[in-house]
Structure prediction request, 471 residues.
Amino acid sequence: MSSNQLDKKSQAWSALFSEPMSELVQRYTASVEFDRRLWKADIAGSLAHAEMLAAQGVIGAADLADIRRGMAQITAEIEAGSFEWKLALEDVHLNIEARLTQLVGDAGKRLHTGRSRNDQVATDVRLWLRDEIDGIGTLLVELQRALVEMADKNAEVILPGFTHLQVAQPVSFGHHLLAYVEMFARDAERFADVRRRTNRLPLGSAALAGTSYPLDRERVAKTLGMVDDDGKPSVCQNSLDAVSDRDFAIEFTAAASLAMIHVSRFSEELVLWMSQNFGFIDLADRFCTGSSIMPQKKNPDVPELARGKTGRVVGHLMGLLTLMKGQPLAYNKDNQEDKEPLFDTVDTLRDTLRIFCELVGGIVVKPEAMERAARRGYATATDLADYLVKKGLPFRDAHEAVAHAVKVAIQQGVDLSELPLATLQGFNASIGADVFEVLTLRGSLDARKLLGGTAPAQVRAQVARHRTRLS
Ligand code: ARG
Prediction:
């Protein structure tokens, strides 16, 4: 398209077209309302391309200077909010190119040499996503740090550990928090891995088959920071694949879904813990809302919303997978639909992580309530069985003897540690007075001092490891 044709695209695409698009079709096919957020990446890609075209002698030095000048002005206009985005120009790429040509004339028309919007958009999305992944990585580190500090403060606090949401064994609350640190650490690894495959250059693939111009793709890759771990330029090796696959966006959304699911599990626990039936924690008021009818209410809206927004991100993953599944090679306009789910995934994950970085510090722990709940559920029954094993009983027999003891304790409405020694000895004669040490919650915790266990000493060791790793 010539510049005039670009400007008048609302009338018809080129000499080939005999009628303009209807307004409805124009609105239906346009993406500028949402893809304009790619503008920085679009300009960076264009400048890298132009600089390489000049170095290869495809365009002149004066053209490059004009393009740089025009792009500087466009950048200023967009930043100032004075850039006029036109729906008739369909997308971010055509809007910027048309304005460039308006500003600098022929040099603007030369920019698109050896390039197509197909490799252009694939490049833009990759550049944009790469930078967003970096921001998310930083937030994941911050969130882990907040959890680690909280874990350190609560290494000695005893929480009933659950299986099947039934009291199972006592655990350190710090240990519980560090479980989420492990999850978020793996999320960070996943994003770092996705980043490697995202940070590869499609430009040079043109529409689908590559181009006959003598482009230096590796130079463009280097200019754009698209390099591998060894600093070597990272360039997509097959033009058909480069312009058409969006697996990097799908992988990102899958990693984002897992991160959101981790946030969601934590949220579910916060909601439960804050309910009157648990009463284990309180959340700072700034993360809660009241009720318009029940004056006594304080609702954990932020974790509930995070749990809800997880569904939305998982939905985007399903959307992107489905978008891809029936597409023949190479580029199809279907791919324009990758943007809104991807953008919304980034926005949702970023905002959620930011809020949780703050929210963690605002958790008020109620250790007495946690400990009381741990006492109610015969959480040290396994410890009694282990005690009997140490006295020489096979584990299965010990398990059975303790089941009888728990039954009696339930009947009497007391904890195992409250049964008289004589009663306990009725279940097994080898039980001695030292049994009461193992029946305490703290004794149970301290006994699990192996790697990965819940003993406060082990929690402290893990806190130290995480601090080093995250510094
Ligand atoms: N707006 C388009 C997209 O997002 C840019 C590529 C258009 N290419 C084309 N041949 N129509 O995918």
Summary: The chain has three domains: 3-113, 118-161+172-370, 374-470.
